[in-house]
Design brief:
Layout (H helix, E strand, L loop, with lengths): L2 E5 L3 H13 L6 E4 L2 H9 L12 E5 L8 H10 L8 E5 L4 H9 L4 E4 L4 H20 L1
Parallel strand pairs: 1-2, 1-3, 3-4, 4-5
């Protein structure tokens, strides 16, 4: 089972993701980091945050965060030989072409703009889950 790490500083968005996962019966182990620095510490097993098991990990990443934003986090992640292969799906409100291009240049597996309605968000999470389940089977 894949360990999911949501990197997002917005409590409402974190609750929305949890609700959407529950609605889609996604029961994977779920971890939350409030920014890129905290996420890196969790992935490396450093600091006070709970470490994330090193096998089967997927990161859901917001781009707009304090301390260390999403793009900066991606650069650090891709530069670390231990973490570089972890798949990342950007889950953000940013619909800027510049952000999309930069994220894909840093080898993200997908880029999802957060839908405005909860129903649309639940559908997006369901699609994401189907995609990831298929990838795990291959």
């Amino acid at each position: 089972m894949t360990n999911l790490l949501l990197v997002d500083d917005d409590e409402v968005d974190v609750m929305t993701v949890r609700r959407a996962f529950k609605k889609n019966n996604i029961t994977n182990p779920f971890f939350v980091a409030n920014n890129g620095l905290e996420a890196l510490a969790m992935l490396r097993g450093e600091g006070d945050s709970p470490p994330i098991p090193s096998q089967r990990r997927l990161i859901l990443l917001d781009l707009n965060m304090p301390k260390m934003g999403g793009i900066e986090f991606l650069r650090e992640l891709r530069a670390d030989p231990e973490l570089t292969k972890i798949p990342v799906i950007v889950l953000t409100t940013s619909n800027e072409d510049k952000d999309k291009v930069e994220a894909y240049q840093l080898n993200v597996a997908g880029y999802i703009v957060k839908p405005v309605t909860f129903t649309n968000f639940v559908e997006a999470v369901a699609t994401l889950n189907k995609y990831w389940t298929l990838n795990e089977m291959l």
